[in-house]
Amino acid sequence: MKKLTYIGIVAALLSSCTIAYDFVATNNPIGTKVGTSQQKYLFGTIPLKSSENNGSDIQDAGYQTACKNGGITKVGLAETKVVTNGFVIKTTTTVYGN
Fold it and tell me: How far apart are CA 36 and CA 13, in angstroms?
């Protein structure tokens, strides 16, 4: 019984769960360009530093950053996804457009 409980606890801690998903559509065509931005929080409150630029920047999961990363000037579709594993909450914004 202890082994089964231990396996259940480990599985719960290592599992990932999407807790929110949202998308926004505009009248612009979806286009061929894709831009993403991402932000991670430890325990939902402590922002983690970016792994890019030697960790000197706080991450940004905003629409404007995603557009900049994809070279997009006209947004056709934008989606936001929030995933957690219990310790780290990751927000990813993906923008499609031209």
Answer: 27
Contact (CB, 8 A) for 53 and 39: no
- Alpha helical stretches, state H, the chain: 2-14, 63-70
As to burial, measured by CB atoms within 10 angstroms (0-12 exposed, 13-18 middle, 19+ buried), residue 54 is: exposed
Dihedrals φ, ψ of 64, to 5°? -65, -40
Q: Which of 73, 68, 63 lies closest to 24 in space, CA to CA?
A: 63
Question: pLDDT value at position 14?
Answer: 65
For residue 5, count other CB atoms closer than 10 A to its CB. 9
The total of other beta-carbon atoms located within 10 Å of residue 69's CB is 17
| Token output for 76 | 């056709």
pLDDT over 70 percentage in the chain: 84
- Indicate the DSSP class of residue 14: H
Report, in angstroms and rounded to the nearest whole number, the Rg of the chain calculated over CA atoms.
17
